[in-house]
Specification:
The structure is a single chain. With about 325 residues, the protein is an alpha/beta fold. The chain has ten helices and 14 strands. It has a single domain, classed as Ribokinase (UDP-N-acetylmuramoyl-L-alanine:D-glutamate ligase), CATH 3.40.1190. The chain is about 35% helix and about 25% strand. The strands form two sheets. The chain has a ten-stranded mixed β-sheet with strand order 5-4-1-8-9-10-11-12-13-14, with helices on both faces. The protein has a four-stranded mixed β-sheet with strand order 3-2-6-7. The structure holds adenosine-5'-triphosphate (ATP) and 1-O-phosphono-beta-D-fructofuranose.
């Protein structure tokens, strides 16, 4: 990617609290083997990992309460330029429990209620920052209570009006509401895509068909992350799968954000970009909590990554 800025928007940022346990047993007093606290939220993570790879990044997010101040303080040393809009509520804390075998359990709070004026202030901040002519505008994550379900769609519309490429990673109703806004890139995971098209996606062919439905509705490219099974990229020019041997994760939190960031970072043809996306995702799962990889770790993540053009539609996703 060029040296131009990447602008991310995270309507529902978080403090990410990660606790490591040997085994999670309900109803017991458990002693953690490790813990960490990091700035989180999907767009924040995209900005953090791109900043670690030398990109100029601007992260737009609402901030309020003591935890809003903490979040900003955590971001300050990470070379992410945070543009915050003040809200009356307090930023949420999301908790992750990671067991020794890599099983990750996540408890995400709903987030603070946003007033209509706070939503407008966030959109105004995005519009203001689009004047820096970013290479990408990335809108990511869930919507907090009070935010309109089409908030990501409105962010995409702002990007389109400014001639800036847009990427979106969200879920549920917010994902359903953004498709027809025509983002240049959509990054659902398998479950999110299945929910969007309201059917099971068991084979590569099922995933390709679902992704092509989105292309038909005006989405530019679809990058479907498949957890330990890698990722599929579907564009008007073709389809590609990339992946490697499944890893035992230290924490999967943020792996999808690093995948998206790797795709935006990489230059070259679609296969190269997908390989980089998968490498960054693999690097992320080997790091604790919401820690994002730096260049050495991302490079190490490329080990054993294969790319297949026109993957066999009959292959079961679980066999990739
Ligand atoms: N167990 C694993 N082994 C190897 N790679 C993995 C594993 N889990 C995830 N990855 C890598 O990380 C990428 C993103 O994972 P996933 O599909 O779980 O993202 P996600 O659900 O969007 O994650 P999040 O929302 O936590 O950021 C995958 O495409 C893959 O490259
Ligand atoms: O609740 P959302 O907005 O869907 O997801 C929020 C979140 O789980 O996503 C990031 C990992 O992708 C974390 O930093 C954060 O806690």
């Amino acid at each position: 990617m060029s040296a131009r800025t990447v602008l991310t928007v995270t309507p529902n940022p978080s403090i990410d609290h990660t606790v490591e346990l040997t085994v999670l047993t309900r109803g017991e007093v458990l002693r953690s083997t490790g813990s960490s606290v990091e700035a989180g939220g999907k767009g924040v993570n995209v900005a953090r990992v791109l900043a670690r790879h030398g990109h100029r990044t601007v992260a737009v997010l609402p901030s309020g309460g003591v935890d809003g101040d903490r979040l900003q303080a955590m971001l300050a040393p990470q070379q992410v330029h945070a543009v915050t809009t003040h809200i009356a509520g307090s930023i949420r804390t999301n908790t992750t429990v990671v067991e020794a075998d890599g099983t990750t359990t996540k408890i995400n709070e709903a987030g603070p209620e946003l007033a209509a004026s706070e939503v407008e202030a966030l959109l105004l901040a995005v519009r203001g920052r689009l004047t820096v002519d970013p290479a990408w505008l990335v809108a990511s994550g869930s919507l907090p209570p009070g935010a309109p379900v089409d908030l990501h769609a409105r962010i995409v519309a702002l990007g389109r009006a400014a001639g800036v490429a847009t990427a979106v990673d969200t879920s549920g109703a917010a994902l359903a509401a953004v498709v027809d806004a025509g983002p240049d890139l959509l990054k659902p995971n398998l479950e999110e895509l299945a929910e969007l098209v309201a059917r099971e996606l068991l084979t590569v062919g099922d995933v390709l068909a679902a992704a092509r439905e989105l292309l038909d509705r005006g989405v530019g490219e679809v990058l479907v992350s498949l957890g330990g099974s890698g990722a599929l990229l579907v564009t008007a020019r073709g389809s590609w799968w990339a992946g490697g041997e499944p890893l035992v994760p230290r924490s999967t939190v943020g792996a999808g954000d690093c995948t998206l960031a790797g795709y935006l970072h990489a230059a070259g043809d679609p296969a190269d970009r997908l390989a980089t996306a998968v490498a960054w995702g693999r690097a992320a799962v080997l790091l604790p909590g919401s820690t994002v990889p730096g260049p050495d770790e991302s490079t190490a993540g490329t080990a054993g990554v294969r790319v297949v053009a026109d993957p066999d539609p009959d292959t079961a996703v679980k066999d990739l």
